[in-house]
Known about the structure:
Blueprint: H1 3-25, H2 33-40, E1 46-53, H3 57-70, E2 74-81, H4 83-91, E3 97-100, H5 106-113, E4 120-134, E5 141-142, H6 144-152, E6 161-164, H7 170-179, E7 189-191, H8 195-204, E8 208-213, H9 214-223, E9 230-232, E10 234-236, E11 247-248, H10 252-256, E12 263-270, H11 277-286, H12 288-296, E13 300-301
Parallel strand pairs: 1-2, 1-3, 5-10, 6-7, 6-8
Antiparallel strand pairs: 3-12, 4-8, 4-9, 4-12, 4-13, 10-11
Amino acid sequence: MNKKVSFRIFMLAVATSLAVFTSCSSRSSKDGSDEEKAKHGDILNGRLSVIVDETLLPIIEEQVDVFQNSYKDSKIELVSAPEVKGINLLLQDRAKTAIMTRKLSASEEEYFKKKSISPKVFQIATDAVVFISNTGRADTSITVENVVKILKGENIGQNYSLILDNVNSSTLRQLKDIGKIEKISGKGLKAMENGEEVLSYVAEHTDGIGIISYDQWLNAKRSFQNKDKIRTLSVQNSLTKEGDNKFYLPNQSTLAEGLYVLSRPVYILNYQPDMGLGVGFSAFLTGDRGQRIMLKADLVPATMPGREIIIRDKVE
C-alpha cells in the first residue's frame, strides 16, 4: 500500500470520527462522561499545546479560531517560537504537536523512537521566504546567489544589509541550507527579534533588505500600518538546471507553479501517543475547511479543496 493511499485511508477514518464526535458532543451527559472527556481529551475535546514556528503564526491563529468556534470543548494553546527554539521545546516534551517548515532530522526522531512513538506528519500548505525593501530603494529584484554571498561575508559590490527576523529563524535556516553555510558572517547583517521588527525597520530605513515569511508578508498587507512603504522583491529562478533565470514575485500562482524558488512546505508534526486532540486538529487542517482557509489567505494549500457543482435537469 503506497503512502498516498495510506494517508487517504487514515484521514478518512479521522474525518468519520470527527463527524461522530461532533454529533455526540451536542448531547448532554448524565453519567459524568463529559467531565471525563474534558479531563483526558479526545480528538475534539480537551486541551492541546501546539508549538508554532513564529513565521507561520498569523495563518495558524486564524485556523485555531475557526476550529475552536466549531468545537467548543476544545482549547488550543499556541506556543510561538523561532524554529530552533520550537524544535527544542518539542524534544523537551513541552508539547506533543508542532507546526514547522521542516520535518525532524533522523537524530531528532531518535528521541521519540526510544519512547515507541510513531509520528503523524502531514503537509498542510506551502509558504515561502520573501525579501522586502523600502519603496525608496531602487532595487526591485534580488538573486539568492547574492544573498548567500552576503551570509558568507563576501562583498557583492552593493550597498545594503540583510535584516534577519531572528538568528534562530526557519527563514535563515533555509537560506543556509541552500548555500551550504555552516556559520554565517556578521558582516552585512542585522538581526532583529521577530518579523514585526523587520517590517518596522524596512519601513523606516532604505539601507536594508528584510527577510520574512510569505505568511508574515500577507499578514502585513492586511494589518501593518506602514505597508505602503514596503514592497517585495522579485527573485531569480536560477537555483536548478530547470530554472528559466527569470525573476518572479512571490504569490499564490508562482508558488503553486514552482516558479518562485524559495517556497517551503508547512507541516503539522503530531507526536501524541494516542488519538488525542492533535489528531483532530491535524484532520481539520488537512481537511476541506482547513485547506479552504489556506487558499483564501493566499497561501498554497497542500490539497486543492473540492468544488461543489449543482446540475439541474432543467432551468426554471
